[in-house]
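Predict the assembly for these two chains.
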Amino acid sequence: MTYILLHHQWKAFWRSRDAGRNVAVQIFMGLIVLYLLGVAIFIGVFLQSILEAAFPEQDVVTVFCGFILYYFFLDIIFRFLWQDLPTLTVQPYLVQNIKRRQLVQFLNLRSLFSFFTLLPLFLFVPFALSVIHMQYGSVVSLAFVVTIISLILFNHFLVLFIKRKTILSNWWLVGFFVIVLLLIAGDYFKIFSVSNMSAIIFKQLLKTPLLCVTAIVLAVAAFYNNSRFLQNNLYLDDLVKSPGHRASAEYQWLQRFGSVGNLIAVDLKLILRNKRPRSLLLFSCIFLFYGFIFYKPVSFDNNDFGFLLFGGIFVTGMFMTNYGQFLFAWQSSHFDGLLAANVPLKIYLKSKFILLTGFCTVALLLSLFYGFINWKIIPVQIAAYFFNIGIHSLIAVYIGTYNYKGLDLSKGVSFNYQGTGVVQFLYAIVIMIIGFILYLPFAMLISSWAGIITVGLLGFISLLLQDWWIDKLTIQFQKRKHKMLEGFREK
Amino acid sequence: MITISNIGKVYNGQIAVDIPQLQIDHGITGLVGNNGAGKTTLFRLILDLIKADRGEILSKDNPVSANEGWKQYTAAYIDEGFLIQYLTPEEYFYFVGKLHNRSKADVDEFLQTFIAFFDGGILKTGKYIRDLSKGNQFKTGIAACILQDPEMLLLDEPFANLDPSSQIRLMQMLKDLQGRKRMTVLISSHDLNNITDVCNRILLMEKGKIIKDLQTSEDTLNELEDYFRV
């Protein structure tokens, strides 16, 4: 059974409308993963020498033990942000003679083929098999390997569970991040030490290898919990939810903008009334805090704005990145009607630009608080803002016309997480690099400030030319629209 | 109204539509044919939602693929893809009305005339369109079309999802509208009784070609039944 389902997925992948793009992304991802795994193997094999060099005064095994829990803690965060949920269009299978358990099994099994599952194996197992084996014997070494594998599985199924929960209710998302932030804060302010705890736990494991049973129990519990959740939620969405009373709303303040306002109102309702874009909105708010990663004091002191610009583009353009890369696909379910309705294409595209500009403006205003860290962030963010609304928006609309895979807003929410995985980050990175390329020449030749001004100015000029761009993009849209329509119709 | 010349569309080597010459003018024209005859494809071609492999479709002498002017006087409902699922029916009507410069009050007044047709299942139900039954979605789509006060109306299998009372109401409505406004209406259906009742011209499609072009008379129903009898 599992084989047949895998085979169907294989077909779905190759026969999908944008197979070419998928393959390209997969190959690119594959190369990155291979590289990272290579690095992991290298680190794993030479871990002893590395640790000895880095912490010459301490016992290698103690350092190693202190590190493990840290890793698995970070692992949860990164899995949460980047690991894709395995998806399966369950509807056609539900009424067939297939046991629910088999479908769940398939989803669980498939999810295991992941970079995150392999990485710790390469990182920790060589050390356990060599150093620990030599110092503590084979039983302890085996217990260590079993514990590592159990922890991988525990993390894996725990994150799948939490991630699926967050789709059903945004409170889980909020709760998850609050807990993570509390843990980070606790460790940072030395209220407790993850590293010490880790050392204590794993040192104990060295003494009593039987403790690895605890880890196995944890893994089994996480697996069982996830399976049970899946099995209970393996229904079509309309069966589980009972819609309450829906109120109509007219955004009066938008009506003043005529047809464009009318279209934007529909877009806003799309975002607010469908689970997927709504979660994306929440995610984007969290991404606002990514600035703390980019805005480092060193950069201000040296006027090294390149890295700051990355941050600025990311922070002010986050929602645009998330929403913009599926710009037209969001409306795939009613694209037919939209293009047959009395909506001139120019007006339609204009409405998209205004919407994207609106997102960026809100993001800019929300992110002004970074100015408290250093005033230099504000001009950088304003330049990034103009880059986003002037240039990034053009790229978003242009790329949007090449996306002809529809998004399903109404159905399959619990099995549909496309659009919050790695591809999105790739897109964001490409955009940031484009910004950086614009920044670089004048920053090198004159000064960092000149580079920032160039970026902002180019964005601003491009913004002034927006009507001209829209004319060009309308022609492009006209050329692509039949392809898009065809793809969107294919559910 | 609509002039089709030499239009052709092929899907994977299968002819979907192949019409050398066709003129559709005001009146109610019916389109019949078995599944795969190309009815929906023809609708989509007229709405420029599909790119033709060859040929041209003119709406009021302008090619539909090069000029967006037809959108102002054409209304169509093919399937749920024409509705915006996450709006309430009222919001959808206001949205469509606004695209044709009709005020909210104007739309409300229009909807009064549809109360019987809606039969309590659409207005003020507190549901989004996606939560409506298929029949009620169809009613919403049809009403939104008529709200646009179109000169050209395209409906793909409008009877398929409607209950018998609504079918009769819809036929009455189409006849009334056509009588008052000289609309051009193109509908497709598998219900031969309905279509011969409401249409004054019937086109029979087979494998993308129009093989019969009948002015409706008393014999038409028999003629069609003869064709479809296996």
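The beta strands of chain B are 2-11, 14-24, 27-32, 54-59, 62-63, 74-77, 152-156, 184-188, 201-206, 209-215. The interface with chain A takes residues 44, 47-51, 68, 71-72, 74, 76, 78-88, 90-91, 94-96, 98-100, 104, 126-128, 130-131, 148 of chain B (CB under 8 Å).
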